[in-house]
Amino acid sequence: MYEELVKTLRSDCMLYLFADKLVATHFETAANAIEDLKKQLDRYDDYIKLNGEVIERLTKKVKELKGNEGIDMEVTDKEATEICKDALYHYGISNQTSKAIEEMSELTKEICKWKEGADNKAQIIEEMTDVYIMLKQMVIYFDCLTEIYQMRNKKLKRLKTRIFEEENP
Ligand SMILES: [Mg+2]
């Protein structure tokens, strides 16, 4: 996976500089390397604007490679919450609500394609995951997990009643 990541970085002009860094420092895992690269990126003014995009691309690549090697990292619910809190702190709620809107529209797009007959289950799953992660961040920000469970119960009961009434007119 490490070699694969270096190869990917080299093939991408924007990420080329970081491939050497990765080789020079001999990280044990690509995940460690990504963590360090994030810190390195923060130090390069020229790259500040590209930070988000670079990190996103690197993270995506690591995810892909991990998938390929079948060594996907297990993330507990508690860790997921911590990661979402970190994301909120790191990017801020304004950026994250924009990201939520973006992910919801990506999911909308994939659902529309599926309705038109596309074979895009994998893309739908990916976008549902993105939306799930963004919603989780919003739940944390608005501190509303209890309210959501209460509302979920209410709405599901209403749905159950509606189905019963429609099936038994
Ligand atoms: Mg997405």
In the predicted model, the low-confidence regions spanning at least 5 consecutive residues are none
User: What would you report as the Rg, rounded to the nearest angstrom?
Assistant: 20 Å
Number of domains: 2
How confident overall, as mean pLDDT? 80
Distinct helical segment count: 8
Listing every helix as H and every strand as E from the N terminus to the C terminus, the arrangement reads HHHHHHHH
Amino-to-carboxy terminus distance: 60 Å
Which compounds are bound in this model? magnesium ion
What does the overall shape look like? Answer: extended
Please bin the fraction of helical residues. Answer: over 70%
Structural class: mainly alpha
Q: Number of DSSP strands?
A: 0
* Largest sheet, strands/sense/barrel: none
Percentage of residues in DSSP E strands? under 5%
Question: Care to describe what's here?
Answer:
The chain has helices at residues 2-11, 16-25, 30-43, 51-69, 77-91, 93-115, 121-142, 145-167. The protein is mainly alpha-helical and 169 residues long. The mean pLDDT is 80. The chain is 80% helix and 0% strand. The structure holds magnesium ion. Magnesium ion is lined by residues 103, 106, 127, 130.
